[in-house]
Amino acid sequence: MVSVTVIDDLLKNSQVLRKELGEAYNKLPSTRCKRKTECCSLMPEMTILETLDAIQNLIAMPHNMRLLMYKNIVRYFMTNPVAVTKCPFPEGEECLTYRNIFFGCRAYGLWSKEYYENLSERSRHVKIHIRKAWEKMNVHLPKEIIEVRVPYCTDVVPTGKTAIHDDLILSVAETVENLSRQCAR
Predict the structure, then answer these.
(1) Largest CA distance in the chain
(2) 56 or 146: which leads in pLDDT
(3) 46: Cα separation from own chain's centroid
(4) Whether 90 contacts 35, CB under 8 Å
(5) Long-range CB contacts (< 8 A, 24+ apart) of 134-138?
(6) Are 141 and 131 in contact (CB under 8 A)?
(7) pLDDT tens sequence across 155-173
(8) I need a labelling partner for 166 at 20 to 30 A (CA). Which of 62, 138, 145, 156 fits?
């Protein structure tokens, strides 16, 4: 059972891993984004370690902003399976957590077009399986939710000199997953 005590313990015991997570993220180039927010209609994939990092960032926010974020997060995660909703973090054309975004958000716009389209197709197949699982419980998800496709992004611009290639991004993804596995022990 997850309780405040469990989360507090996880936050305390994951400090070193969250630092290593930041170091892994730093292997990817810094980016600028035109903030068209098309990608923000995707459910952000995150590991347990990234979730803990997000919780720590929420705790550090000013009270009023934190309350707004809580409301947005609850609305987003509760309605996302049945509606195409925007990520809870954008405020206008800015992202409130851009410096602390999850790996999936960081990698969006950096993958090669071919690799991204392969990921997108795999995601579509997963959604079909999810739809079928819900249908077995007599819940019918709207077709536009299952078939939503986010176009390949050309609006993310790397600002660093790091050479970007799919193998680098996959290596960072593997590091993030391995760190998260250590956290779950």
Answers:
(1) 52
(2) 56
(3) 5
(4) yes
(5) none
(6) yes
(7) 888 887 778 899 999 999 9
(8) 145
54-72 burial, b for 16+ CB within 10 Å, e for fewer?
Answer: beeeeeeeeeeeeeebeeb
State the residue range of the domain holding 122: 4-184
pLDDT per position as a tens digit, 58-97? 899 899 988 888 888 888 877 776 777 777 777 776 777 7
26 Cβ partners below 8 Å, 6+ apart? none
Q: Residue 80, CB half-sphere, CA atoms under 13 Å: how many?
A: 17
User: CA-CA distance, 24 to 2, in Å (whole number)?
Assistant: 27
Q: Is 77 left (phi over 0), alpha (psi -120 to 50) or beta?
A: alpha
Location of structure tokens 């050479």: 163
Count of residues making up the chain: 185
